[in-house]
Specification:
By secondary structure, the chain is α/β, with parallel strands linked by helices. Helix content is 49%, strand content 12%. The radius of gyration is 20 Å and the shape is globular. The model has no long low-confidence stretch (mean pLDDT 92).
Length: 249
């Protein structure tokens, strides 16, 4: 199946239609910025069942590198089209599927850093901003985010969900990267307003006073949202506004 997929001739996009981008941009106005997705070479993992992908990465790394090289060319072409068409705000990318704890950090370097550093350089040449989403235990790869030119990381999770307190991330790369997070979505969905208040104050203390954007660790995927969650979102906002204006202590 993989050989059949790779045999399909590649035809670059001739002209990308980004009219939906401009429609959304007009709606938002000055109230915010748009976040546009950029395809990632490691996205080829979607061609496999997950367990087959992991096994193939471990047993046939050469083939997977060749596949990533091919996908990089296509991702890069698409990004050029996107930028040339005028989308030049915030670009979201990801690569957590080869991040720790499932994979050794060397996989993150070979399948993410190697390619994204070139894509990020291109985006920066067009004055774009790169936002990297990566759950998991990222402490061992923190410096790699800065190395490949990431502008911001989300969500930077402390134990037990991850292994990286904001204070640790701040110490290692806080002068190079902005942090987005790190309020756990589980606290929003099922915690008390007091828990959310404490978590927000802790995030501001550890990640502030600069280089921190308060955010939940994920978006809610439940509909309708429980009333508790709505109250907790309000609490996150109110605590952030109150303590975000104060000195670090």
């Amino acid at each position: 199946d993989l050989e059949a997929y790779l045999s399909i001739p590649y035809e670059p996009v001739k002209k990308l239609d980004i009219s939906p981008f401009y429609k959304e941009k007009e709606k938002i106005g000055e109230a915010g910025v748009l976040m546009t997705g950029v395809p990632t070479p490691i996205g080829f993992s979607g061609l496999f069942r997950f367990q087959d992908f992991v096994k193939r990465m471990m047993t046939d790394r050469e083939t997977m590198v060749n596949l990533a090289d091919i996908m990089f060319e296509r991702c890069y072409d698409y990004t050029v089209q996107l930028l040339e068409a005028g989308a030049r705000e915030v670009f979201q990318v990801g690569g957590e599927i080869v991040a720790p704890p499932l994979f050794n950090p060397s996989y993150f370097r070979d399948f993410v850093v190697k390619y994204h550093s070139k894509i990020f350089k291109l985006i920066h040449e067009y004055d774009g901003i790169v936002y990297f989403h990566c759950h998991g235990s990222i402490n061992a790869i923190l410096e790699m985010f800065a190395e490949m030119g990431t502008d911001a990381i989300h969500p930077v999770e402390p134990p037990p969900m991850g292994d990286t307190p904001l204070s640790e991330a701040k110490r290692k790369i806080g002068d190079k990267v902005c942090f987005i997070g790190n309020i756990q979505i589980s606290d929003i969905l099922s915690g008390s307003t007091e828990q959310v208040d404490r978590a927000v104050r802790q995030a501001i203390y550890e990640g502030g006073p600069e280089g921190l954007i308060l955010s939940t660790s994920a978006s809610p995927s439940w509909y309708p949202l429980p009333q508790r969650a709505l109250k907790n979102y309000v609490q996150l906002t109110e605590t952030g506004l109150q303590y975000g204006k104060l000195p670090r202590r």
